[in-house]
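hey so i finally got around to running the thing on that chain from the lab meeting. sorry it took forever, my laptop kept dying and i had to restart like 3 times. anyway pasting the input first so we r on the same page abt which one it is
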Amino acid sequence: MALHFLVDGYNVIHQIPQLDHGKLESQRLGLVKYIEHGCPQGSIKNKVTIVFDGQGGGGFGSAPLSSLIEVIFSVGESADEKIKEIVDQSKNVKNIVVVSDDRDIQIAVRKSGARVIS
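ok and heres what got predicted. didnt touch it at all, straight out
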């Protein structure tokens, strides 16, 4: 049973001092590299999706940055809303782990049946 980790991108970046400085593009890329090399999801079989607010750009265009990590920008809605939407539309919500310190996201996704890691 593979897990799907949904990462609240900017929320996590602000929790990791090494990533929380410099240009926004560098911070986002730093998070992708941190997950690729550190494998905090436990196994490469576990899927990782990072959700960022905004429209992307600057190296985050149509070409994927990583074969292991999907990066989504929440165009027209907040990253919080996008994460909730992904959880609500999931066929296997019990396999989803949302990574965020945001209390509103934690409460909403737990009600949907997903797990949460701060």
